[in-house]
Amino acid sequence: MKDNKEQQIEKQEFLFDSVNYKILLIGIAVIALGFILMSGGGTDNPNVFNEAVFSFRRIRLAPTTVLIGFGITIYSIFKKSK
Fold this sequence. Notes:
Elements: H1 2-10, H2 18-38, H3 56-78
């Protein structure tokens, strides 16, 4: 009886497979890339307006990249292991 309990304790597994963790890390990297794309466009002088804030990269590309990253992370959580 004691041997069965010790075997159950030794057989603890991770919540996800290694594939899930790899996909999760890829998703986190894509989210980080999206936030990096959003950065910048500031100015040193607060009286001068910089039009770079409204560039395609900051308005369309970066938020889309972040949303794709969130989708990848959600997929990695819901992916069934074999």
